[in-house]
From TrEMBL:
Keyword Cell membrane part of the UniProt annotation: yes
Name of this chain's protein: Membrane protein
Organism name: Methylobacterium gnaphalii
InterPro entries on file: L-PG_synthase/AglD (IPR022791)
Membrane topology of the entry: Multi-pass membrane protein
């Protein structure tokens, strides 16, 4: 996956930590052959996952009527919605630091208001529309390019920001699976040892990565380019930011769940992370269908109409409302930018 566009000169590439890797490797043709012949596996896996989730969701929703669903949606109180939107704000606040930490790694200075605008709008739009490399990348370019950042710098920023998400997910999933291994065994139809093993593996992966990047400078190679990975200090900060984001997002749905829910938050977070990861694997915008099927399957002891109502409200609170706010903010930003240009052109 080519995240970094071709540079026009060596000076710019050195400024952002991206340098030319050795080309003409004898292994390159072999890697290309493997990529061409096995690229379909990921696509088939995503299609099968989506199809299986659709069947599960259909089966679980057979007993739900529009009347029950409407009652579940209207049964949520104003206090619940207020707390849910509060966690939405906290989650998106953490998301703004994804870009802030990436800019720090690239040694680029940017006012926080611009960083927050680019980060919030890019994630809010990509969460809803999908195709994050295109949608989020386009919005970041729209905002950051007017501040002097090149396409290569913005692409590098996008790659580094992605590490923040996965570091947070890894820690939250690992701790939840270890602490709540017994309760999750019944909900996820697994065993305690399997849950603990996966949890330990997840934590070891994160700790191993932190140790790996702390020993010396590390790079990822994308075709002919190399990108320097964040060191231990920035990576640890990324991990904390990712944890905050994931927990706040899970709290949005947790608050909206039916009152019959008796699960502790740590158990619920593990289910949420698993559902989110399956949704990402499906390549569907927002994991639609896959996410819902996983949550409903794990929450099968609760009234299905109420669980589905909670999931629909979660979509509205966490995806639709921020999406509309992001579109409004981008519109205001564009109008303000044009007005500044017009005033600058009219000044003597």
């Amino acid at each position: 996956m080519n995240f970094v566009e071709k540079r026009k000169d060596l000076a710019e590439s050195e400024a952002i930590g991206v340098s030319r890797a050795e080309a003409g490797s004898p292994a390159e043709p072999k890697r290309g052959w493997v990529k061409r012949h096995y690229a379909w596996i990921g696509t088939c896996a995503s299609v099968l996952l989506l199809a299986a989730s659709a069947v599960v969701l259909w089966k679980l929703s057979e007993e739900i009527t529009w009347a029950k669903l409407g009652a579940a949606l209207t049964g949520v109180g104003g206090m619940q919605l207020g707390i849910a939107f509060g966690f939405v704000a906290i989650s998106y606040f953490f998301l703004t630091f994804y870009d802030a930490l990436a800019l720090k790694q690239l040694k680029l200075k940017m006012p926080y208001r611009i960083t927050a605008l680019a980060s919030f709008t890019s994630y809010a739009v990509s969460f809803t529309l999908g195709f994050p490399l295109f949608t989020a990348g386009t919005i970041r370019y729209w905002v950051y390019s007017s501040r002097g950042l090149s396409a290569a710098k913005i692409a590098a920023l996008t790659v580094i920001a992605g590490f923040t998400f996965w570091l947070g997910m890894g820690v939250v999933l690992g701790l939840s699976l270890i602490v709540e291994a017994g309760q999750l065994a019944g909900l996820a139809f697994t065993s305690i040892r399997v849950n603990q093993g996966v949890g330990v593996a997840a934590l070891f992966s994160v700790v191993g990565y932190l140790i790996w990047v702390s020993i010396k400078r590390r790079y990822i190679t994308v075709k002919h380019w190399r990108l320097e990975l964040p060191g231990a200090t920035v990576s640890f900060s990324q991990m904390l930011v990712g944890i905050g984001d994931v927990c706040a997002a899970a709290a949005v749905l947790y608050v909206l769940m039916p009152p019959e829910l008796t699960l502790g938050f740590s158990t619920f977070v593990a289910i949420y992370v698993l559902a989110a990861m399956l949704g990402i694997a499906s390549n569907v915008p927002g994991g639609a269908g896959v996410f819902e099927a996983t949550i409903m399957l794990a929450m099968s002891s609760l009234p299905r109409d109420e669980v589905l109502g909670s999931l629909l409200l979660f979509r509205v609170c966490y995806y639709l409302v921020p999406f509309l706010v992001a579109l409004a903010m981008l519109g205001i930003y564009e109008v303000a930018k044009r007005l500044r240009r017009r005033r600058a052109a009219n000044d003597p």
